[in-house]
Amino acid sequence: MYLQRVVITGMGALTPIGLCVPDFWTGLLEGQSGGGPITRFDTRGYRSRMACELKDFRPGDYLDHKTLRQTDRFSQYALIAADEALRDAGIFPSSLNPLRCGVIWASGNGGVESFEQEIRANAASQQPPRYSPYMIPKMLLDTPSGLLAVRHGFRGPNFGTVSACAAATSAIIEAFTYLRLGKAELMLCGGSEAPITPAWVGGFDAMKALSRRNQDPMTASRPFAPDRDGFVIGEGAGALVLEGLESALARGARIYAEVVGGGMSADAWHPTAPEPQGKGALLSMQWALEEAGIQPREVGYVNAHATSTPAGDLAEAHALAQLFGQGAGQPYISSTKGHTGHLLGAAGAIEAIATACALHQQIIPHTASTPTTDPALPQAGQFLLHRPTKRSFGYALSNSFGFGGHNASLLLKRWKK
Q1: What is the pTM of this model?
Q2: pLDDT score of 257 more than 60
Q3: CATH classification for the domain delimited by 6-250, as one of 3.20.10.10, 3.40.50.360, 3.40.47.10, 3.40.50.300
Q4: Chain centroid to CA 97: how far?
Protein backbone atom coordinates (compact mmCIF):
# COMPACT_ATOMS: atom_id res chain seq x y z
CA MET A 1 0.00 0.00 0.00
CA TYR A 2 1.36 3.41 -0.96
CA LEU A 3 1.60 5.82 1.98
CA GLN A 4 1.62 9.49 1.09
CA ARG A 5 4.19 11.78 2.70
CA VAL A 6 2.59 14.63 4.67
CA VAL A 7 3.89 18.15 5.27
CA ILE A 8 2.86 21.30 7.14
CA THR A 9 2.32 24.20 4.75
CA GLY A 10 0.33 26.70 6.82
CA MET A 11 -0.03 27.72 10.46
CA GLY A 12 -2.16 30.14 12.46
CA ALA A 13 -2.14 30.99 16.15
CA LEU A 14 -3.89 33.03 18.81
CA THR A 15 -1.84 32.83 22.01
CA PRO A 16 -1.30 34.78 25.22
CA ILE A 17 2.08 35.98 23.87
CA GLY A 18 1.10 36.71 20.28
CA LEU A 19 -2.01 36.90 18.11
CA CYS A 20 -0.36 35.40 15.01
CA VAL A 21 2.38 32.87 14.39
CA PRO A 22 5.23 35.38 13.84
CA ASP A 23 4.42 37.21 17.09
CA PHE A 24 3.99 33.93 18.97
CA TRP A 25 7.38 32.69 17.77
CA THR A 26 9.05 35.99 18.63
CA GLY A 27 7.48 35.86 22.08
CA LEU A 28 8.94 32.40 22.67
CA LEU A 29 12.43 33.44 21.63
CA GLU A 30 12.28 36.62 23.72
CA GLY A 31 11.12 34.75 26.81
CA GLN A 32 7.80 36.58 27.10
CA SER A 33 5.20 35.44 29.61
CA GLY A 34 1.46 35.58 29.05
CA GLY A 35 0.65 35.36 32.75
CA GLY A 36 -1.27 38.01 34.64
CA PRO A 37 -4.23 38.60 36.95
CA ILE A 38 -7.57 37.44 35.55
CA THR A 39 -9.49 40.34 34.03
CA ARG A 40 -12.43 38.36 32.64
CA PHE A 41 -14.35 38.13 35.93
CA ASP A 42 -14.16 39.08 39.60
CA THR A 43 -11.76 36.68 41.32
CA ARG A 44 -12.35 37.75 44.92
CA GLY A 45 -12.59 34.58 46.99
CA TYR A 46 -10.64 32.47 44.49
CA ARG A 47 -7.41 30.84 45.59
CA SER A 48 -5.94 30.97 42.07
CA ARG A 49 -6.56 34.39 40.54
CA MET A 50 -4.35 34.39 37.45
CA ALA A 51 -4.39 33.17 33.87
CA CYS A 52 -2.73 33.54 30.51
CA GLU A 53 -5.34 35.61 28.66
CA LEU A 54 -5.15 36.87 25.09
CA LYS A 55 -3.75 40.43 25.12
CA ASP A 56 -5.22 43.36 23.16
CA PHE A 57 -7.55 40.96 21.38
CA ARG A 58 -10.77 42.27 19.83
CA PRO A 59 -12.74 39.53 18.04
CA GLY A 60 -14.68 42.20 16.13
CA ASP A 61 -11.47 43.02 14.27
CA TYR A 62 -11.69 39.57 12.65
CA LEU A 63 -15.33 38.46 12.59
CA ASP A 64 -18.69 40.04 11.75
CA HIS A 65 -21.36 40.79 14.34
CA LYS A 66 -23.61 37.90 13.32
CA THR A 67 -20.82 35.35 13.75
CA LEU A 68 -19.86 36.79 17.13
CA ARG A 69 -23.48 36.66 18.33
CA GLN A 70 -23.93 33.03 17.32
CA THR A 71 -20.65 31.56 18.56
CA ASP A 72 -18.71 30.99 21.75
CA ARG A 73 -15.19 32.32 22.19
CA PHE A 74 -13.61 28.93 21.54
CA SER A 75 -15.26 28.77 18.10
CA GLN A 76 -14.27 32.36 17.36
CA TYR A 77 -10.66 31.54 18.20
CA ALA A 78 -10.83 28.55 15.83
CA LEU A 79 -12.16 30.61 12.93
CA ILE A 80 -9.50 33.29 13.35
CA ALA A 81 -6.53 30.94 13.70
CA ALA A 82 -7.72 28.82 10.77
CA ASP A 83 -8.06 31.89 8.54
CA GLU A 84 -4.43 32.75 9.25
CA ALA A 85 -3.27 29.18 8.57
CA LEU A 86 -5.02 29.01 5.19
CA ARG A 87 -3.69 32.42 4.15
CA ASP A 88 -0.23 31.35 5.26
CA ALA A 89 -0.48 28.20 3.16
CA GLY A 90 -1.63 30.18 0.12
CA ILE A 91 -4.82 28.11 -0.01
CA PHE A 92 -7.85 29.47 -1.82
CA PRO A 93 -10.99 27.29 -1.79
CA SER A 94 -11.67 27.96 -5.46
CA SER A 95 -8.41 26.21 -6.34
CA LEU A 96 -9.19 23.03 -4.38
CA ASN A 97 -11.35 19.96 -4.76
CA PRO A 98 -13.64 20.47 -1.72
CA LEU A 99 -14.51 16.77 -1.59
CA ARG A 100 -10.87 16.00 -0.76
CA CYS A 101 -10.40 18.66 1.93
CA GLY A 102 -11.35 18.02 5.55
CA VAL A 103 -11.31 19.49 9.03
CA ILE A 104 -10.43 17.83 12.34
CA TRP A 105 -10.64 20.23 15.27
CA ALA A 106 -10.09 19.74 18.99
CA SER A 107 -11.23 21.15 22.29
CA GLY A 108 -11.16 19.73 25.77
CA ASN A 109 -13.95 21.90 27.16
CA GLY A 110 -16.04 23.43 24.38
CA GLY A 111 -18.26 26.45 24.88
CA VAL A 112 -18.15 26.63 28.66
CA GLU A 113 -18.45 30.42 28.83
CA SER A 114 -21.73 30.41 26.90
CA PHE A 115 -23.07 27.58 29.05
CA GLU A 116 -22.27 29.42 32.27
CA GLN A 117 -23.81 32.65 31.00
CA GLU A 118 -27.06 30.93 30.06
CA ILE A 119 -27.35 29.14 33.40
CA ARG A 120 -26.61 32.29 35.42
CA ALA A 121 -29.06 34.42 33.45
CA ASN A 122 -31.91 31.96 33.84
CA ALA A 123 -31.18 31.19 37.48
CA ALA A 124 -31.30 34.89 38.32
CA SER A 125 -34.56 35.51 36.47
CA GLN A 126 -38.02 35.24 37.99
CA GLN A 127 -39.50 34.67 34.53
CA PRO A 128 -40.00 31.33 32.76
CA PRO A 129 -36.74 29.97 31.32
CA ARG A 130 -35.61 31.68 28.12
CA TYR A 131 -32.62 29.92 26.67
CA SER A 132 -30.91 31.13 23.53
CA PRO A 133 -31.46 29.01 20.41
CA TYR A 134 -27.70 29.31 19.93
CA MET A 135 -26.84 27.82 23.33
CA ILE A 136 -26.42 24.22 22.21
CA PRO A 137 -24.32 24.88 19.07
CA LYS A 138 -22.25 27.36 21.08
CA MET A 139 -21.40 24.59 23.54
CA LEU A 140 -20.75 21.58 21.31
CA LEU A 141 -17.13 20.59 20.96
CA ASP A 142 -17.52 19.72 17.29
CA THR A 143 -19.02 23.10 16.38
CA PRO A 144 -15.69 24.58 15.16
CA SER A 145 -15.08 21.72 12.73
CA GLY A 146 -18.53 22.24 11.25
CA LEU A 147 -18.18 26.04 11.11
CA LEU A 148 -14.80 25.75 9.41
CA ALA A 149 -16.23 23.40 6.80
CA VAL A 150 -19.03 25.85 6.07
CA ARG A 151 -16.65 28.82 5.98
CA HIS A 152 -14.24 27.21 3.53
CA GLY A 153 -16.45 24.73 1.68
CA PHE A 154 -14.46 21.68 2.80
CA ARG A 155 -16.60 18.54 2.38
CA GLY A 156 -14.11 15.83 3.28
CA PRO A 157 -13.60 14.14 6.70
CA ASN A 158 -14.96 16.35 9.43
CA PHE A 159 -15.15 15.81 13.18
CA GLY A 160 -13.92 16.95 16.59
CA THR A 161 -11.46 15.19 18.85
CA VAL A 162 -11.80 15.12 22.63
CA SER A 163 -8.95 13.69 24.67
CA ALA A 164 -8.58 16.38 27.34
CA CYS A 165 -5.21 18.12 27.09
CA ALA A 166 -4.06 15.72 24.36
CA ALA A 167 -6.97 16.67 22.10
CA ALA A 168 -5.22 18.94 19.60
CA THR A 169 -2.29 16.58 19.14
CA SER A 170 -4.80 13.77 18.60
CA ALA A 171 -6.48 15.92 15.92
CA ILE A 172 -3.18 16.48 14.11
CA ILE A 173 -2.32 12.78 14.23
CA GLU A 174 -5.77 11.89 12.86
CA ALA A 175 -5.36 14.41 10.04
CA PHE A 176 -1.92 12.97 9.28
CA THR A 177 -3.40 9.48 9.10
CA TYR A 178 -6.19 10.46 6.66
CA LEU A 179 -3.67 12.12 4.38
CA ARG A 180 -1.12 9.35 4.65
CA LEU A 181 -3.72 6.79 3.60
CA GLY A 182 -4.79 8.92 0.65
CA LYS A 183 -8.28 9.60 2.01
CA ALA A 184 -7.83 13.35 1.65
CA GLU A 185 -5.59 15.83 -0.13
CA LEU A 186 -5.63 18.60 2.46
CA MET A 187 -6.60 18.69 6.12
CA LEU A 188 -7.15 21.70 8.35
CA CYS A 189 -6.54 20.70 11.95
CA GLY A 190 -5.79 22.12 15.38
CA GLY A 191 -7.57 23.12 18.55
CA SER A 192 -9.08 26.00 20.48
CA GLU A 193 -9.97 26.67 24.08
CA ALA A 194 -11.65 29.46 26.05
CA PRO A 195 -11.76 28.16 29.64
CA ILE A 196 -11.11 31.34 31.65
CA THR A 197 -14.53 31.37 33.30
CA PRO A 198 -15.67 31.43 36.94
CA ALA A 199 -16.72 27.78 37.10
CA TRP A 200 -13.81 26.35 35.13
CA VAL A 201 -11.13 28.23 37.05
CA GLY A 202 -12.88 27.34 40.29
CA GLY A 203 -13.20 23.69 39.30
CA PHE A 204 -9.57 23.25 38.31
CA ASP A 205 -8.50 25.05 41.48
CA ALA A 206 -10.67 22.75 43.60
CA MET A 207 -8.71 19.84 42.11
CA LYS A 208 -5.50 21.59 43.25
CA ALA A 209 -4.38 21.62 39.62
CA LEU A 210 -3.74 25.38 39.39
CA SER A 211 -0.80 27.39 40.66
CA ARG A 212 -1.54 29.78 43.50
CA ARG A 213 1.51 32.01 43.04
CA ASN A 214 -0.78 35.01 42.64
CA GLN A 215 1.92 37.42 43.78
CA ASP A 216 3.94 36.73 40.61
CA PRO A 217 1.67 35.46 37.84
CA MET A 218 4.25 36.02 35.08
CA THR A 219 6.52 33.32 36.52
CA ALA A 220 3.87 31.07 38.09
CA SER A 221 4.00 28.57 35.21
CA ARG A 222 7.38 26.97 35.85
CA PRO A 223 7.68 23.51 34.26
CA PHE A 224 10.23 21.16 35.83
CA ALA A 225 11.07 23.63 38.65
CA PRO A 226 11.50 22.35 42.23
CA ASP A 227 8.77 24.69 43.52
CA ARG A 228 6.20 24.17 40.75
CA ASP A 229 2.73 24.07 42.26
CA GLY A 230 0.31 23.72 39.36
CA PHE A 231 -0.47 25.04 35.91
CA VAL A 232 -1.64 28.49 34.85
CA ILE A 233 -4.78 28.24 32.74
CA GLY A 234 -4.58 29.74 29.26
CA GLU A 235 -6.73 30.41 26.21
CA GLY A 236 -6.32 30.60 22.47
CA ALA A 237 -6.04 28.45 19.36
CA GLY A 238 -3.60 26.88 16.94
CA ALA A 239 -4.34 25.78 13.37
CA LEU A 240 -2.24 23.80 10.91
CA VAL A 241 -2.67 23.03 7.23
CA LEU A 242 -1.47 19.54 6.40
CA GLU A 243 -1.25 18.28 2.84
CA GLY A 244 0.37 15.62 0.76
CA LEU A 245 3.96 16.31 -0.24
CA GLU A 246 3.27 15.88 -3.96
CA SER A 247 0.48 18.45 -3.87
CA ALA A 248 2.58 20.88 -1.86
CA LEU A 249 5.53 20.61 -4.23
CA ALA A 250 3.31 20.92 -7.29
CA ARG A 251 1.94 24.27 -6.18
CA GLY A 252 5.28 25.53 -4.88
CA ALA A 253 4.15 25.73 -1.26
CA ARG A 254 6.46 26.71 1.57
CA ILE A 255 7.00 23.68 3.79
CA TYR A 256 7.64 24.16 7.51
CA ALA A 257 8.19 20.53 8.44
CA GLU A 258 7.22 17.00 7.52
CA VAL A 259 4.92 14.96 9.75
CA VAL A 260 6.46 11.51 10.04
CA GLY A 261 4.90 9.84 13.06
CA GLY A 262 2.20 9.89 15.67
CA GLY A 263 1.63 7.75 18.72
CA MET A 264 -1.40 7.59 21.02
CA SER A 265 -1.87 5.50 24.15
CA ALA A 266 -3.74 5.28 27.46
CA ASP A 267 -2.37 5.12 30.98
CA ALA A 268 -5.35 3.04 32.14
CA TRP A 269 -4.45 4.25 35.61
CA HIS A 270 -6.54 7.09 37.12
CA PRO A 271 -9.22 9.62 36.07
CA THR A 272 -6.86 12.59 36.50
CA ALA A 273 -3.43 11.54 37.78
CA PRO A 274 -0.75 10.30 35.37
CA GLU A 275 0.78 6.86 35.74
CA PRO A 276 3.73 7.72 38.04
CA GLN A 277 6.48 6.09 35.96
CA GLY A 278 5.22 7.54 32.69
CA LYS A 279 4.49 4.17 31.09
CA GLY A 280 1.72 5.49 28.85
CA ALA A 281 3.71 8.57 27.87
CA LEU A 282 6.66 6.36 26.98
CA LEU A 283 4.45 4.16 24.81
CA SER A 284 3.06 7.08 22.79
CA MET A 285 6.58 8.38 22.09
CA GLN A 286 7.85 4.93 21.15
CA TRP A 287 5.00 4.41 18.70
CA ALA A 288 5.60 7.79 17.08
CA LEU A 289 9.26 6.91 16.52
CA GLU A 290 8.36 3.41 15.35
CA GLU A 291 5.98 4.80 12.73
CA ALA A 292 8.77 7.01 11.38
CA GLY A 293 11.34 4.22 11.55
CA ILE A 294 13.88 6.19 13.58
CA GLN A 295 15.84 5.65 16.79
CA PRO A 296 15.63 7.83 19.93
CA ARG A 297 19.17 9.13 19.37
CA GLU A 298 17.98 10.85 16.18
CA VAL A 299 15.57 13.15 18.06
CA GLY A 300 17.13 16.56 18.64
CA TYR A 301 14.34 18.32 20.53
CA VAL A 302 11.34 17.45 22.68
CA ASN A 303 8.60 20.01 23.28
CA ALA A 304 7.47 18.52 26.56
CA HIS A 305 3.89 18.55 27.80
CA ALA A 306 5.25 19.66 31.22
CA THR A 307 2.41 21.74 32.62
CA SER A 308 4.13 22.73 35.89
CA THR A 309 2.24 20.23 38.06
CA PRO A 310 4.29 18.18 40.53
CA ALA A 311 2.99 14.77 39.41
CA GLY A 312 2.71 15.42 35.68
CA ASP A 313 6.20 16.80 35.14
CA LEU A 314 7.75 13.97 37.14
CA ALA A 315 5.89 11.25 35.21
CA GLU A 316 6.91 12.74 31.86
CA ALA A 317 10.52 13.05 32.98
CA HIS A 318 10.50 9.35 33.88
CA ALA A 319 9.18 8.52 30.41
CA LEU A 320 11.79 10.70 28.70
CA ALA A 321 14.58 9.15 30.76
CA GLN A 322 13.46 5.66 29.80
CA LEU A 323 13.28 6.58 26.11
CA PHE A 324 16.55 8.48 25.78
CA GLY A 325 18.63 6.87 28.51
CA GLN A 326 21.96 8.26 29.65
CA GLY A 327 23.91 7.87 26.41
CA ALA A 328 25.09 10.28 23.76
CA GLY A 329 22.67 12.14 21.59
CA GLN A 330 20.23 13.16 24.30
CA PRO A 331 17.79 15.79 23.03
CA TYR A 332 17.17 19.29 24.26
CA ILE A 333 13.93 19.45 26.25
CA SER A 334 11.80 22.50 26.93
CA SER A 335 8.20 23.36 27.74
CA THR A 336 6.65 26.37 26.05
CA LYS A 337 3.96 26.40 28.76
CA GLY A 338 6.39 28.52 30.75
CA HIS A 339 5.47 31.26 28.24
CA THR A 340 1.82 30.56 27.39
CA GLY A 341 0.42 28.73 30.36
CA HIS A 342 -1.68 25.66 29.64
CA LEU A 343 -4.21 25.97 26.80
CA LEU A 344 -5.73 22.59 27.72
CA GLY A 345 -7.25 21.02 24.59
CA ALA A 346 -5.56 23.58 22.34
CA ALA A 347 -2.10 23.17 23.87
CA GLY A 348 -0.93 20.52 21.43
CA ALA A 349 -1.74 22.74 18.44
CA ILE A 350 0.31 25.76 19.49
CA GLU A 351 3.10 23.46 20.66
CA ALA A 352 3.14 21.66 17.32
CA ILE A 353 3.48 25.10 15.71
CA ALA A 354 6.36 25.95 18.04
CA THR A 355 8.02 22.62 17.22
CA ALA A 356 7.60 23.15 13.47
CA CYS A 357 9.07 26.67 13.78
CA ALA A 358 11.98 25.26 15.77
CA LEU A 359 12.76 22.78 12.99
CA HIS A 360 12.24 25.33 10.25
CA GLN A 361 14.47 27.94 11.91
CA GLN A 362 16.83 25.45 13.61
CA ILE A 363 16.35 27.32 16.88
CA ILE A 364 15.09 25.61 20.04
CA PRO A 365 12.98 27.74 22.43
CA HIS A 366 13.71 27.60 26.13
CA THR A 367 11.51 27.08 29.18
CA ALA A 368 10.65 30.51 30.56
CA SER A 369 10.21 31.12 34.31
CA THR A 370 12.15 28.04 35.40
CA PRO A 371 15.45 29.03 37.03
CA THR A 372 16.58 25.47 37.72
CA THR A 373 15.24 21.95 37.35
CA ASP A 374 13.96 19.81 40.18
CA PRO A 375 16.78 17.52 41.37
CA ALA A 376 14.14 14.82 41.94
CA LEU A 377 13.58 14.56 38.19
CA PRO A 378 15.43 11.73 36.47
CA GLN A 379 18.05 12.83 33.96
CA ALA A 380 16.11 12.74 30.72
CA GLY A 381 18.08 14.98 28.40
CA GLN A 382 19.30 18.57 28.31
CA PHE A 383 16.67 20.82 29.88
CA LEU A 384 16.88 24.17 28.12
CA LEU A 385 16.03 26.86 30.67
CA HIS A 386 17.58 30.28 30.21
CA ARG A 387 17.74 31.14 26.52
CA PRO A 388 17.01 29.68 23.10
CA THR A 389 19.76 27.80 21.34
CA LYS A 390 20.69 27.31 17.72
CA ARG A 391 21.28 23.70 16.82
CA SER A 392 21.26 21.58 13.70
CA PHE A 393 18.71 18.82 14.24
CA GLY A 394 16.48 16.69 12.08
CA TYR A 395 13.64 15.37 14.27
CA ALA A 396 11.50 16.79 17.07
CA LEU A 397 8.79 15.37 19.31
CA SER A 398 5.80 17.28 20.66
CA ASN A 399 4.06 15.65 23.63
CA SER A 400 0.53 16.10 24.96
CA PHE A 401 -0.94 14.22 27.92
CA GLY A 402 -4.42 14.69 29.36
CA PHE A 403 -6.76 13.87 32.22
CA GLY A 404 -8.11 10.38 31.77
CA GLY A 405 -4.66 9.06 30.89
CA HIS A 406 -4.75 10.20 27.25
CA ASN A 407 -1.29 10.38 25.66
CA ALA A 408 -0.35 11.69 22.22
CA SER A 409 3.08 12.29 20.70
CA LEU A 410 3.69 13.94 17.35
CA LEU A 411 6.99 13.46 15.50
CA LEU A 412 8.11 16.09 12.99
CA LYS A 413 11.08 16.07 10.60
CA ARG A 414 13.07 19.00 9.27
CA TRP A 415 12.22 19.72 5.65
CA LYS A 416 15.12 19.99 3.23
CA LYS A 417 14.65 20.54 -0.49
Answers
A1: 0.97
A2: yes
A3: 3.40.47.10
A4: 28
